[in-house]
Amino acid sequence: MTQVQQFQQAFESQAYKALVEIYLQSNTDENLSQVDFLYQKYVSGGESQFDWFQKIVTKLWQVKPITSEFISFVKDVNRLGFVLTPFKDKFELDQVDVQQNNVLHYIFSVAAQTQENLPFNYIRSLALFESNQTLAVALSTLNNQLLSPLEVFLAAVKKIHALPEHEFSAFFGLIQMMEQRQQSLQAYAKVIEHIGHLYRSANRMPLREEQLVLLTAALYKVSAQQVCMDLNF
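Structure (tokenized):
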């Protein structure tokens, strides 16, 4: 029986002392699977069990502190809330893994692929609780592909699709936060190439008032007309 299976068995048996011991003896990959198991159990159990699962995760991370490898676990805002609630002071948004990705890179990448559970309004709301400086650093961090989190979204979005108004507005708000760091962005050509491919696949021309055009223009401080011209190469 694997460490993950032993962990699951201990949980189902409510053997919480054994649960902690198994977690301590497991490697990082196994710990990730174990925490994911707890998260899935929480999701299937509903909000009423949130505090109970939080206590378990808190105990596990007290005896064995989280590492940068856990960044990849946070793939959407629901998982982010699951992590931030017990360990807000130990899980910084600007913490990066070996690929120089922070949680926002992962969250925005998944959102681009699915275009569901959009995160921008939630992330902007964190400014009420998080240090604005920490959030600005996270938003301006370039990963090993030289992409900031917002660029990750634009460079991976799957289709030309209008965002809900509150998410669209929040995206602009995140751009403004990012500007505090005055980070020089380097992926304009990559973003333009990807969005241009979306328009060509849809067999239509970009319009200056469309969201993807406006977001790209705002992020790179160019005009919407310039973005349209570059998309039509």
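The chain has two domains: 1-65, 66-231. The chain is about 60% helix and 0% strand.
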